[in-house]
Amino acid sequence: xxxxxxxxxxxxxxxxxxxxxxxxxxxxxxxxxxxxxxxxxxxxxxxxxxxxxxxxxxxxxxxxxxxxxxxxxxxxxxxxxxxxxxxxxxxxxxxxxxxxxxxxxxxxxxxxxxxxxxxxxxxxxxxxxxxxxxxxxxxxxxxxxxxxxxxxxxxxxxxxxxxxxxxxxxxxxxxxxxxxxxxxxxxxxxxxxxxxxxxxxxxxxxxxxxxxxxxxxxxxxxxxxxxxxxxxxxxxxxxxxxxxxxxxxxxxxxxxxxxxxxxxxxxxxxxxxxxxxxxxxxx
Length: 283
What we know:
Elements: H1 2-14, H2 29-39, E1 42-43, E2 48-49, H3 52-74, H4 85-120, H5 128-150, H6 155-174, H7 178-181, H8 186-190, H9 199-204, H10 207-215, E3 216-222, E4 228-234, H11 238-260, H12 264-276, H13 278-281
Antiparallel strand pairs: 1-2, 3-4
């Protein structure tokens, strides 16, 4: 919506349109291309884009808008009863033009610029010593928070620290993005298949794979795109998972009381915990 709003603001400076549906005509195609270049920061001298990804998918957005406009006309939406059948035909023609010519006029060059930027961008890899230092620091934080939770000290704050440590540990070890692992549910982690008799599979494993199977646990999660993703979790985290599960009820009851009595000072803290660190709070 923000992309379309920016597009409309630019077009209102060069045309006499009042509604966005006025743009969905074949005659406006040239204006749409020019406006897309402006909002994506196109430089005609260097033939580069400041926001190449925006120039890439603005064409798909316009085709989607055409589909919505045709649906409203066909279903006789009360807001668009004044539109005639010829309007739908013009939208069809514009959609065909975008499908056939947008790539030549904009997308190909934007894709070239995007790939060049990726190629020129340096990839900085951390040193092994730095990773070990970071892992040791996270482990010490987790151990301290774990002991305090066991003793019932500062349950809310230590639970949050423990959640951050678990999320960070799994994130670094699996080298994945936050969105791919933050939806790890406790039920998925607790599901155990060790007692299933799979001798053929076990015999086919190498000694290294057998050692890894004994040290790590394979968990399947559904990422933000609802696709299956495999996450490997160290079995040392099992004791942390157990204490988090026991303290969960205390945390959630506290959140319920905070929201019920509208305590503004505490709500932001727990809203952050409840949404960001889904790895331990999803049921």
